[in-house]
TrEMBL record:
Name used for this protein in its record: Imidazolonepropionase
Amino acids binding 4-imidazolone-5-propanoate: 90, 153, 186, 254, 330
Residues reported to bind N-formimidoyl-L-glutamate: 153, 327, 329
GO BP annotations listed: L-histidine catabolic process to glutamate and formamide; L-histidine catabolic process to glutamate and formate
Cofactor(s) required for function per UniProt: Zn(2+); Fe(3+)
Top-rank taxon: Bacteria
Functional note: Catalyzes the hydrolytic cleavage of the carbon-nitrogen bond in imidazolone-5-propanoate to yield N-formimidoyl-L-glutamate. It is the third step in the universal histidine degradation pathway.
Reaction(s) this enzyme catalyzes, per UniProt: 4-imidazolone-5-propanoate + H2O = N-formimidoyl-L-glutamate
Underlying gene: hutI
Pathway(s) this gene product operates in, as recorded in its UniProt entry: Amino-acid degradation; L-histidine degradation into L-glutamate; N-formimidoyl-L-glutamate from L-histidine: step 3/3
Top enzyme category: hydrolase
Amino acid sequence: MSALLIINIASLAGIHAKDTLQLKGTAMAELPEIKNAWLLCKDGLIADFGTMENIPSGLLDSIPTVSANGGYVLPSWCDSHTHVVFAAPREEEFVMKIQGKSYEDIAAAGGGILNSARKLQIATEDQLFESASARLHDMILQGTGAVEIKSGYGLSLDSEIKMLRVIKRLRETFPIAVKSSFLAAHAFPQEYKNDHEGYIRLIIDKMLPQIAEEGLADYMDVFCEQGFFSVEETSRLLDAGAKYGLPPKIHANQLSVCGAVETGVKHNAVSVDHLEVTDDAAIESLAGSNTIATLLPSCSFYLNIPFANARGLINAGIPVAVATDFNPGSTPSGNMNFVVSLSCIKLRMLPAEAINAATINGAAAMQLSDQVGSIAIGKKANLMITRPMPSLAYLPYSFGQSQIKIVILNGRIYDGRP
Ligand SMILES: N=CN[C@@H](CCC(=O)O)C(=O)O
Ligand SMILES: [Zn+2]
């Protein structure tokens, strides 16, 4: 049996009933906490917690103990939308953007996703694993304790499989849950520019069967956007994914309104992600559905595009999650602390709403909220211990600085060794 006792916690925050799997409406602003607390981890799970005044006698003498020294303890961040497997950064496009080119201009000129695909096709699986491992390691030190990772820079049978195998290796290597989304429908490769049907057939007839046979993906993703995949193409691809048991998680309403959110909802998507262009129709179709709206404020920040209408979504009773979107083109950052700060500063979410969106609702957007995302007995002991803070609001307020002092995964202090 392994055990770890955390004592002197100024506030143990994010305590939700174990069967609370997601939060919406006014419940998103509730982040129940216990002041002056202790928490016991046993065999990788949260075994018990309470106030220091009532700590069971004998616990302190018998269990290895770490003092939070007046810091907060929160559930680890659950980053439900990333593209951390890529071959090379794209800082040259960063400069082009400063000079006035838009994301769409760069993509149309053969940059963007196709630029990343060219580089990924010549990278080995080991090279991709090494570079993605370094990114994931940094993300864990920044508090991330569960992550979703997409393919989508392969755009050929071999390279998509190569990416998905790297994601599988990351899952087997790191002590955090890793979910995998199949995103061959990220862009049309150059050779299929005028043959959309050919590429869609390649995805449906060749890629999906092999990926399903190897069990390489949990979700089906499509970049449903003008100039990328149309609503009709997206529908066909989501239907095909469903035949192999892959529920949708899609890129929707990032750059324009084209019915992407409604298409995701129609196909019972686990989440529709981005929504920088949040029109009334998108809010209407999400309200009353089971689909989570995953917002990616670091992408808006980096691309200088509008921020999603988080308040409209929350007020309509839609569960909102936030995630990094870490990728080389639109969001070269995997820092969930910055996402939580932006959620408050730019999405106008309250600190408690932003933290719930980055923990329990992020977990729900990966169908993991029965295991992670909140403080509850029986859930994984994936936690962060902060420096002493005057209040919870200090965490997003102190943007750009990390308040995290100790990361605990599966009840053990993460020491950087995968
Ligand atoms: N929008 C589509 N995919 C990524 C960007 C991919 C890229 O530019 O490399 C995103 O989520 O922002
Ligand atoms: Zn994305």
